[in-house]
Amino acid sequence: MITGNFYDTSTQDPHLDALGGDSEGTNIRDEAEELDDEETMANDVRDTRSDSPLTPAQVANLHMYPLLMRRVTQQTGKGKIHSMYSLVVVGDGNGLVGYGEGKDEEAAVAREKALAKALRSMDYVERFERRTFWTDIESKFGGTKIILRPRPVGFGLRCNPNIHQVLKAAGIKDASAKVWGSRNPLMVVKGLFRMLQAGHAPLGMGDGVGGGMRRLDKGSGLRNKSAIERDRGRKMVNMRTL
C-alpha cells in the first residue's frame, strides 16, 4: 500500500528485510522455481528408467558407454531450435546389449533419456564359447560396410573404437572388425546392432533398426549355432580342452 510518496511498511513482508529487499527476494524465488523444474525433469527421467525390467542394483553393474554427444538444430518456420543429441550403449558383459538415443535442450537430460531407451532395447547376442562370433559376418548400412571375424582365444578386440565399446558391453572378447566407407559413429553403431540383433527380426522385413524397407539377404544378421549346423549338415563339436 502506497501513501503519498512513502511505502506503508505495515503491510510489507517481514522476510524481505532478511533477504535484503524485493529484488534479492525475487532472485531467490526464481532460483527456487528453477530448482523445482530441474527436480521435476529428473523425476521424469527416473520414471522412464524405471520401466526397465532390471533392478537398480543390476543397472548399476551394467557397462554404460556414452559414445556420441552432439549439438543438433531443427529448422522451423519460426527459426532454429537447438538441442543436444546423445547415443548411449549399455550391456552386462555377458551377451546382453542395447543402445538408445536421446535428445533434449540439456546434455545431461539427453544422456539420461538415451540411457533409459538403451535399457529397454537390450537383447541377447549369440556367442561362440561365450567369447567370439560363430562365423564371419558382413553387412552394409547406408555408406558404411562392416566386416566382423571370429578370432582365437587371447586375440582380444582389434577393431573400430565404437565397435570395440559395443562388443565389450556385449561380452565379445576375441574378434576383429573392419569398417569400409563412412566411419560416422552413428552409422557404425546402428549397422553393428543390425548385424548383432537382426536375427530376432522377421526375415526379409525391415532394415533391422525400425525402417519399413525390404532387407537384403546379405544383411540378415548374426547366425546362431543351430543355423550353422543346419547349413553344414553336421553337429558342431567343442574342441577346447581348457
What does it look like?
The chain is α+β, with helices and mostly antiparallel strands and 242 residues long. The chain is 35% helix and 26% strand. The strands form three sheets. It has a four-stranded antiparallel beta sheet. Strands 7-8-10-9 form a four-stranded mixed beta sheet. Strands 1-2 form a two-stranded antiparallel sheet. A hairpin with a 4-residue loop joins strand 4 and strand 5. Helix 2 runs parallel beside helix 4. It is elongated, with a radius of gyration of 26 Å. The protein starts with a strand and ends in a 10-residue tail after the last helix. The N terminus is likely disordered.
TL;DR of this structure?
With 242 residues, the protein is α+β, with helices and mostly antiparallel strands. Helices cover 35% and strands 26% of the residues. It has helices at residues 14-19, 22-49, 56-60, 107-120, 161-170, 185-197, 225-232; strands at residues 2-3, 6-7, 63-76, 79-91, 96-104, 123-124, 137-141, 144-150, 157-158, 175-181.
Output the structural class: alpha+beta
Strand content: 25-35%
Largest sheet, described in full? 4 strands, antiparallel
SSE topology string = EEHHHEEEHEEEEHEHH
Count of helix runs: 7
The general outline is elongated
* Helix percentage range: 25-40%
Cα separation of the termini: 89 Å
How do the strands line up in the largest sheet? 3-4-5-6
Overall mean pLDDT: 77
CA radius of gyration: 26 Å
Poorly predicted residue ranges: 1-12, 14-21, 200-208, 213-219
Number of strand elements? 10
